[in-house]
Amino acid sequence: MTMDHVQEALDHVATDQVAIPDKPKMFRRRSGRAIAGVAGGLADHLGVPVVWVRTAFALLAALNGAGLLAYGLLWVFVQQQTEETAKAPTSKERQQAFGLIALGVGLAVASGTLTGFISGWVAVPLAVAMIGLAVVWREADESQRRRWRVGAKDGFAGAFLGGGGWSAAIRIVAGVALVITGIGVVALRSGSLDQVQFALIAVIATLIGVAVLTIPFWLRLVRDLSDERKARIRTDERAEIAAHLHDSVLQTLALIQKQSEQPREVARLARSQERELRGWLYGPNGYGKPAEMDEETATTGQLSEALATACGEVEDTFAISVGQVVVGDAELDDSLVALVQAAREAIVNAAKHAGVEEVSVFAEVEPTSVTVFVRDRGKGFDPDLVPDDRHGLADSIRGRMTRHGGTCKVRTAPGEGTEVQLAMPVKAGKGAA
Amino acid sequence: MTDSQREPVKVFLVDDHALFRAGVRTELDSITDEVRVVGEAGSVAEAVAGIARTKPQVVLLDVHMPDGGGAEVLRRVRPELPDVVFLALSVSDAAEDVIAVIRAGARGYVTKTISSKELVRAVVRVADGDAVFSPRLAGFVLDAFADRPGSAPISDPELDLLTPRERDVLRLLARGYAYKEIASELFISVKTVETHVSSVLRKTQLSNRYELSRWASDRRLV
Fold first, then answer.
1. A328 close to B (CB below 8 A)
2. Per-residue confidence (pLDDT) for residue B216, from 0 to 100
3. A GO molecular function for this record (chain B) (predicted)?
């Protein structure tokens, strides 16, 4: 194959494999497959009838076998479904599929021969080699399925045979024989070469054959490794959860037993622990996130959660109560994270300087902006009389806001309490309920 | 507001947690003589019977109870005793529960974390016929009347929409402002603020606009 064709095929694969963020991962079909379930999987992924996909592959095969290469690459790099789906194919579909396979292979060979891309006599051994390859790879799929069923992860031979016994071994051997035959014929027929060159060609051919044949098994080894790594991560996470519960909930329960004479203190402890646990479970970086979230593209969460977490932290740190009300909600982005951080600083300031037991926080998500009000009924202050070394507070809140295009207003006077008003513009469509 | 010469307000407690009832009772009885607890109940049936027997002015009602919760008590008592005023009390953050109790006829909602003094003030205020909107309830109502994709169509503008003024008042309530502060903020009298709040309460109770369950799940309230 020329580089152009390879590039073309790769492009083809790439466009199929570029994951659109909200699309689920593509899997090859397990049931109702003609060869490897690639076409079916692709059809499921793109939401089109499977016949179209198969036809597309068959027609692409006419481009010097680009369709076949694309199919092969998808076969190798796309994982099988782990679950059997109940959809059994109709016999008509099956016939169609085999017809299209024949058509694709035929077109590939014919176009290759016509364009002189491969010389005529090579087509037959090449086809033989490809059939052998398909047999071996299919066997790899089968053994993978058996391993899913059994859950075995046993050594090298297991990786190859996957508990399929003799019949699997025979199928693999047959496939290997076909591939070697195909490659061997090509090598032997390549004219009047002297011995050294012939040996060289034979060795290279064999190496290529082995490499091609074992692709699925190498891939599987890599995947097994990553599976084991995932399992280890899960174990670590469990340990972390246990540690967290021990450090927080159990300690608080012990404290509550000690303080049982003071119902108010008990209530305060219990409340703050409940909030802390909720935040830990459901907060932006919480453990109890819905499972459908992709680990890599986990969203940063919702504004209301982030704000609740911030309020809770301040409540715990300064032993005051922060009443928070959020109207509407929005996905967090950089500017909203800055808004939450600014709000948090404002709450901390109120807790530190106002000398009150309670701070009110109100956030409202509107179509074009998100506003947050942080209010206390405390001392208040004269903004003009703040000593220079204390400017950092207001400035850091204001700075955070203005860097992201937001605004910050402070209403205060001595004895009047303080209200910090924060407003952050949002892109239209973000302010969803 | 009140003068110290008036009769204490008769209060009845409904909550399925005996511990909580005992706590509130002690607090209310010790802190002030403005209110007097005349009875308590831990279930819907007990509450209905107890309220009929003791004829309180104000019932403090837990939103969450087995067999129907606070709303069920309201539904069974109100036809018989329309003069009894209900004030909802809850630890719950679940908007749909709170709004359900308001729609069943409660005149206000406060969280269980409210201080005793505030609670007494709220009880006296509902006894006087006012509504009591905690900041959280103000937020819930704003949410319920918000126009967003998926909210129910408006059939009766009279009931299904808040006026800009009502919205301003609710926002200030949600921000933790007292009536007096709201009045000076909006350059209106305290009386007018009370009128707005009562009008919002009426709309919340009578409007058929929102599909609350859906709205609450949209909010992903845990």
1. yes
2. 46
3. DNA binding
